[in-house]
Amino acid sequence: MRVWDKYLTERDKAVHGLSGFSARTGFGKRPAVLIVDVNYAFTGDVDESIEASVKKWRTSCGHIGWAAIPHIQTLLRSARASRIPVFFSTGVDTRPDHFNRGAWSHKTRRSNEDTLVKVEGVRGNDIVREIAPLPHEIVIEKLKPSPFFGTPLPGYLIDLGVDTLLICGTTTSGCVRAAVIDAFSYNYRIALVEECTFDRFESSHALNLFDMNAKYADVIAIDEATDYLAGVGRGLYDAKIAFPAEVPA
Amino acid sequence: MRVWDKYLTERDKAVHGLSGFSARTGFGKRPAVLIVDVNYAFTGDVDESIEASVKKWRTSCGHIGWAAIPHIQTLLRSARASRIPVFFSTGVDTRPDHFNRGAWSHKTRRSNEDTLVKVEGVRGNDIVREIAPLPHEIVIEKLKPSPFFGTPLPGYLIDLGVDTLLICGTTTSGCVRAAVIDAFSYNYRIALVEECTFDRFESSHALNLFDMNAKYADVIAIDEATDYLAGVGRGLYDAKIAFPAEVPA
Amino acid sequence: MRVWDKYLTERDKAVHGLSGFSARTGFGKRPAVLIVDVNYAFTGDVDESIEASVKKWRTSCGHIGWAAIPHIQTLLRSARASRIPVFFSTGVDTRPDHFNRGAWSHKTRRSNEDTLVKVEGVRGNDIVREIAPLPHEIVIEKLKPSPFFGTPLPGYLIDLGVDTLLICGTTTSGCVRAAVIDAFSYNYRIALVEECTFDRFESSHALNLFDMNAKYADVIAIDEATDYLAGVGRGLYDAKIAFPAEVPA
Amino acid sequence: MRVWDKYLTERDKAVHGLSGFSARTGFGKRPAVLIVDVNYAFTGDVDESIEASVKKWRTSCGHIGWAAIPHIQTLLRSARASRIPVFFSTGVDTRPDHFNRGAWSHKTRRSNEDTLVKVEGVRGNDIVREIAPLPHEIVIEKLKPSPFFGTPLPGYLIDLGVDTLLICGTTTSGCVRAAVIDAFSYNYRIALVEECTFDRFESSHALNLFDMNAKYADVIAIDEATDYLAGVGRGLYDAKIAFPAEVPA
């Protein structure tokens, strides 16, 4: 029983069965982790209901975002223990004249809020403190949904010889979806870690997981991800990245 | 009442109301039309039920694809009457060793069929005859979901000075979705023509339209598209493309 | 008489005459200015001989860079008076482990210097003070030669509807050359402003100007650039960028 | 003594010595070969003087192109013996209205010739017969200088896990240069095989080799290339590409 099953029509289930989609990709030998946009603009500044949070932060997912944080911490611990590169993506602050927003201005009624401080001391584009990047990890600042679009990410992955991406974060139907399409288009193997991935819309979350699992990525449980990371050789990337001798607990 | 309403949960509707998404982009001044992957691999060789068609053509949408064809013809007539550039995307034939498929091999159980002739005289990647490109129109051959990825499309649009894309085709949750994300990322105004767009899954079709309408594109009716095209100046692109003097009926 | 003439062989001159290269592109209607990498790493911290400067700053062009600054100031004054967007590119600081340098580490014997402070208070990647960007202008931070590669620049230019780029900066044979190839590949009209462009190698400077003038760009004098900018309509981009009411002198 | 030495000024030699450029990149473990644009448009239809050839084929390099062919054959034999992937790039035929040429129309006085048949039975964009691609090899059709720009090449290289590119072909100052800049920007190790690389201009050829050797690539002799290819493990790519059991002599 998957989260998307209840949204599929009977015909969808029949067609899915016939079409041959949703085969298992499987893992490669050289993974990296990509955590998409888990910043305060998408979680809100505190763990509260999405209805309350979205009034302050127009893109917030509220409580459901905070519920993913402990799982992302688990994923991070596992990646760090195996000295696997971790990429975090986040947004770029909006200019006062909104020029750098481009097409993002087209579809929102609340873009005028994007340069406001909603809560003193909280910057929307800061990665949530509980999963803050370590100095050797890589933050990809981006203007568009995909962390691959107009950023150094493709070149970094080539330089590292990565063949597999463990992707998670938010929103499932937005930047995660865009990341997965681009990663797929560059021919990476992709696993999407379900407990670490969230969206403001329940239906979009479920159906986007279905779409991605059908065509582009394996939607897996956190345990599968950590088992895999524990099993890849430690030190795969030591020639390229100065991992700290001691991993913070 | 939109096609996606019945798939949204009550919480989704409440959050959508609060979030400020789904504003109207509106049209620019220099449009082009992009028809995504309306070829026999996605419609099947004849108009029949999807359940029957998908057995021959693993990516087929069956009848629902054929139902879109008259609407795409209407859109084409309108674009051609106004001498607006039309781009068609389609796939590249699979090599015998499947090398050029890349990650597409990861998620299907039926990739061994991709080099077979299913119906004598019908090539999966041929655009459906009823909407065949005219010689001055542009076919974008692509290997990945997005017609922008690894193709000349971005440069063509810049050369033409296009600011607005009318997008349609198939599948809503696959190549159309990918096209829309990339067009949005390049900062184009996007309208998605609903009657001309289809998917093999009813639920994915509806929710992907919802996602795109919320964040990236206006999901519009064919009449809005043809009204718009009738209103833009004729001859916008005559310096770049040799449109035929006489448009075929 | 052009700067490259003395480097061409007699056969080169004959072949050039026959080949039909070096036609004039001419200007379009919507320009932007792109100033490539005129930062302290490429000029050195003070105006001194290249032989002295390059000992401190391994990429420095020394005096010849400082000689270009007044011309770049002229270009900036002209662009600002006509409210034309100005893009500046510069580098990203090297990480302690050099990970973000990628292939740049392959060809230098001095990469160990890239994280050193050479002169207190001078950061190599800062744009030279005399031509510092104004707040409404756009700085493109890049890791690779071309300011188009892995950056938001393509999307910005599309959003603005730019059709012509006035390019200058440094080095002629490095990042300027890469910028010109990419701008050409995206189908922009390109003029390269000769007095504002410099290189550490006299021969490479001259021959790269020859190559670019032959195939990709018009190599023009600063007066042609300012005449053109004075003649385009003021206010072309006012809807997108908040130009200051008063231009600093 | 290198081919570029005679073009460098005394100051250039001194600055080059101080700057630390031109270190050796060295080879990686997973090579591919990229042969740029060795087609009839760049060699002419027969081996004759460049002055004669360029009158028929405006981009021809004439005799110097034909002189490189035996060396490219040597490189091909070596790559094929080790089952290393070979990519060939070439151009796309020009449309009657020249739309797909884009900015190429800007700088030539002879673009009206691009749709003419110059010699019956010879298509300018066909790879020269003596080095014709085998069925398992990959032809990259491109519209712009770089074989990476708007093509599937980046995704193919990622799928294969390539880390090193042996590049050659023509023109040194045009498409080879553009290929090298992009390969460098994606962080590949690059060796440029000197005897297999040519240009219509003697000076541009020499100085572009200098530039690339200084900053982006090792300019090596054909013997170094074949020694390297003989030493890499055979069968590195057998899981992805169906190499023929028997290599043609």
How does this model look, in words?
Four copies of one chain form a homotetramer. A six-stranded parallel sheet of chain A has the order 3-2-1-4-5-6, sandwiched between helices. The model of chain A has no long low-confidence stretch (mean pLDDT 97). The relative contact order of chain A is 0.20. Chain A is built from eight helices and six strands, in the order αβαααββαβαβαβα. The first copy, chain A, has 249 residues and is an alpha/beta fold. In chain A, 35% of the residues lie in helices and 15% in strands. Chains A and B meet through α1, α3, α6 and α7 of A and α1, α3, α6 and α7 of B.
How do the strands and helices of this protein lay out in sequence?
The structure is a homotetramer of 249-residue chains.
Chain A: H1 10-19, E1 31-36, H2 40-43, H3 50-56, H4 63-81, E2 86-91, E3 138-142, H5 153-160, E4 164-170, H6 172-185, E5 189-198, H7 202-215, E6 218-220, H8 222-231
Q: Identify the strand order in the major beta sheet of chain A.
A: 3-2-1-4-5-6
Helical/strand content category of chain A: alpha/beta
So what's the oligomer here? homotetramer
Query: Helix tally of chain A?
Result: 8
In whole angstroms, the N-to-C terminal distance of chain A is 34 Å
Q: Mean pLDDT across all residues of chain A, rounded?
A: 97
Low-confidence stretches of chain A: none
**How many strand elements of chain A?**
6
Task: Note the main sheet of chain A.
Answer: 6 strands, parallel
**How much of the residues of chain A is beta strand, in percent?**
5-15%
Instruction: Identify the overall geometry of chain A.
Output: globular
SSE sequence of chain A, one letter per element? HEHHHEEHEHEHEH
Instruction: Please compute the radius of gyration of chain A using only Cα atoms.
Output: 18 Å
Q: Which pair of chains has the greatest number of interface residues, and how are they split between the two chains?
A: A-B, 59 and 59 residues
Proportion of helical residues of chain A: 25-40%
